[in-house]
Amino acid sequence: MADDPIKVPADSPYVVLNDTVVFPHILASIAFHDPRAMAAIDDAMNRDPKTLVCVAGKREGEEASAPEIISPEEAREIFEDGPPAPMAAEPSAHYEVGTLVVIHKLLRIPAGGIAIMVQGVRRVHLDREIPESPYPRAEISEIPEVPEKTDTTEALLRTILSQAKKLGTLASYLPDEFETMTLNVENPFHLCYLIATFLRLPVAERQEVLEAGTLEAKLHLIARHLVKEIEIQELGGKIKSKIADEVQKSQRDFFLREQMKAIQKELGDGEEGDEEVVRYRQKAQEVGLSPEAEKEVAREISRLVKAGGQSQEAQVIRTYLDVVLDLPWNRESPESYDLVEARRILDADHYDLEKVKERILDELAVLARKKKNNEGGRGPILCLLGPPGVGKTTLGQSIARAMGREFVRVSLGGVRDEAEIRGHRRTYVGAMPGRIIAGLRKAQTKNPVFMLDEIDKVGADYRGDPSAALLEVLDTAQNKDFRDHYLDLAFDLSRVFFLTTANVAQTIPPPLLDRMDLIPLSGYTWEEKLHIARSHLIPRAMGELSLDAREFDLPDATLKKIIREFTREAGVRSLDRKITSILRKIVRDRALQSRKKKIVVKGPDLARYLGNEYIEPETRLRKSGPGIVTGLAWTPNGGEVLFVESVAIPGSKGFILTGQLGDVMKESARTALSFAQSRSKTLGIPPEFFSKNEIHIHVPGGAIPKDGPSAGITMTTAILSLATGIPVPSTVAMTGEISLSGRVLPVGGIKEKLIGAREAGITTIYLPAKNLKDTVELPDEVKRDLAIHPVETMDELIRVFFASAMKEAPKGRGVTKGSRSSGKG
Ligand SMILES: Nc1ncnc2c1ncn2[C@@H]1O[C@H](COP(=O)(O)OP(=O)(O)OP(=O)(O)O)[C@@H](O)[C@H]1O
Prior knowledge:
The chain has 28 helices and 24 strands. It is α/β, with parallel strands linked by helices.
């Protein structure tokens, strides 16, 4: 097509193309609706050859989309299948340089308008408009294109070809054969037009290419456009590949995550793994951890993520997190220091215990003041000391209720290992926190009333000394940062109200005892028990069993019988059980009754209700006679009577002791024997009684721990009774240590002993004069029923019981049997 024979006419119809430039040598298809343009085309169709000028319209500032340049085959297809997209016509202004084209094909569109397929031939200038023409027509002249071959044009050409090749690989909008097309074009002008046609250039820039005067200028323009387009394409490529990378990565991540989930599901973890971690993190935020704990928990959570689902390690971590996150780090009960209300609660829950309640209220008052002044710290820890079942635990509960706090109780009985208090380190298999932290976890608040039960039964051995750990727990100066081995985190115990209980003060480790304020609770008399039963135990049991007061009657006489003959205890625990079991049977009997009438439980019915658990009063169990004397013993379960029996058997061993006596008691027995021998002359006891006989002393009753010196006067009296043959009445009991010279020394546990003695049916008591002060606080009924005689020497007792055996009439201060002396100092 390089040597086309077409000559440029002097004048030509022309059409204005809205958004494209048709270049010489290039094929293009264009559609028209405008009648004037169609008339111009009609003119062209009547010419031979059918030529027409195409000029670009001027639309300032607007970029044109690429004209639809099509291959001849495509053009043919379009012309066979239908019209191309129509183009706007009749812009107001147009360029003066255009292209003479030859029309190859024309198609009339049924809806109106025509489409033509044209090929550019020459570059022309519209010289002058022909005014009389009814359609656009102008005088035209060719703008010749002079090929020049210089080194510059050659260099530019080569650059353009290589750039075109490069762009061909970069730009997806270029046809695959773009590179081949450029290589096949020989005419450098045509090459410029071909490339300009395919590049996405605005109309103005296309026009610039068309108008460029010299080949070098045209080549420059094309090279510049190619470089720019390559840059754009490369940048676009980079952006695209970056986006592609991102998309790929997110797709890859998604894929991996899905795969991981599938694997976890296979392993049985399901999606719980994620949920669990989220749950732990959330909980960690909610529970108000200390900064130290926060760090540790975060560390453990990330360890958990790594450890994976069901591994042993994950289980250990989970247990730890469960414990830490379940602790009351910042949860507190609102405390109450209303003393009137506290008194009401204490009274409602417990009968009497006046001194104990007073002491507790004092403590509350001090605490309230400290709280008001914002002072920390507490005085000594309260220790409720007394036999079982006297209400120590329930007092603790009432104190908690009165203070508006939670209550926890931890038993320390048998604790010998420090780890029980402070926990095992996490490196141990199955390690758990100690009892203190476990208790707080149970309380769910950081300021509960925390009862350490049976602190007298804490022991120490090779596993460490629990009392050292307890000291730290109870010391307000140290317990702000209590460190459990398992948690390995400081936990603040300073808000906890610690209380302890014990049956015996002697076995409380001394350093602990030193920090405690003992509040003694003694055993109850049967009258007190009766009151407690009436006011507390029966109403509570009735509530539990939904029994109404109109349905039954437990008269006092029956209750007394239960207390005295069916229970033997200092407290009321067993009484409580008996009452509950009677009421339970009443509920059953009521259910079986056809005519509902009140059930009255009488004394003789008790065997039916409670079985034959009849307990004989001790005094009735033994026979009185020479050599048998009643003593008094203190046990952790309350006061008891104990019998000293002695017999003389021929022999020369001198002395036999049986009944599992402790060393101190054995020594005490020896002293008793020596003292008795020293008085044989006064009492007319023949000397051979001791030289020809063996004295056997036996103390029956396996349940009573028998040690200590307090049976001294009892054993002396028993030996003298045996030697003189004078019995001591079985309603008499005595307690006191004896010295070798016969002085009666004071002993402990008087209050418990006397309550126990009265319960056992004793009526007369001999005790060391120095112990008389201990009888002041005895319940009134005990003082009323017991004749209490203080003695300073054993000789006083001898005069009371063995006066008839004495060679001389008794001298000095005598003690008349049955005289009342209680309350005297
Ligand atoms: N003074 C009292 N008033 C009302 N109820 C009482 C009284 N004393 C004891 N109780 C009742 O006796 C029962 C036993 O008391 P609790 O369990 O507190 O005894 P404890 O002294 O703690 O014994 P332990 O030392 O064995 O733990 C409880 O039901 C309690 O309510």
